[in-house]
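User: Second chain of the day. Same drill as before.
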Amino acid sequence: MPVTSRGSLSLQAPLADLEELVGSESPSSGHATVARPAGLVARVGAGRPGAEPKRITAGGSSHPRWRFGDGDRQALLLARHDTVWPLGTPAARPYELAGGVVRGPGCFDMLAGLVMAVHAAHEHVVVGRLLDRTVLLRELNAELLEEQA
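Assistant: Same format as last time:
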């Protein structure tokens, strides 16, 4: 994934969050491996103004849900933190940022999408562009949803 920066948004924090998530081991292979890094996922948004996640318990696991802005209209963003990569992959193929390209398990899809969603929604809060809309970001995993069915 090529890395570029535009405007005033710094890439330092999103890239640091992505690096931490890539090293966290979150394969889709089972409930325990998917549920384990949920606390780390919640920390991606925690501490940023307007970005403290609420914990929702479903299927025996805790899932973070962020609410950005306030208003009667809503937008919903869904994200996942699990990857298709088996246990041990981050050790064999660790996060790497070289030549403007990020590499590592989940850097091209799930983890990068989650990090971008949290940071983009937070940036809108900072610059006051949410207007009358509430943006909900819900982190879900297919395996955990299947248990609820």
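The domain at 12-148 is CATH 3.40.630.10 (Aminopeptidase).

User: Great, on to the next one.
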